[in-house]
Design brief:
This protein is α+β, with helices and mostly antiparallel strands and 64 residues long. The protein is 41% helix and 16% strand. The chain contains two helices and three strands. The longest helix has 16 residues.
Length: 64
């Protein structure tokens, strides 16, 4: 099983967020990324947000 990650630096943002979130499962990663997007960036938890996060999800080692 390959580790998955989402890197906020790949998302358009005025805040220039540098957070990167990783997990072993897609479900766990999406849940953590949604919590971050809602609490830090002020997004609403919507199906569109979740789809967008799935679109930027990567597998393997995170870049430095």
């Amino acid at each position: 099983m390959s580790r998955k990650y989402i890197d906020c630096r790949e998302m358009p943002s005025d805040s220039k967020c540098t957070i990167s979130i990783a997990a072993d499962s897609e479900k766990e990663l999406i849940e953590a990324a949604v919590q971050h997007a809602v609490s830090v960036h002020g997004h609403e938890d919507t199906p569109e947000l979740r789809a967008g996060l799935r679109g930027v999800m990567r597998e393997g080692a995170q870049p430095n």
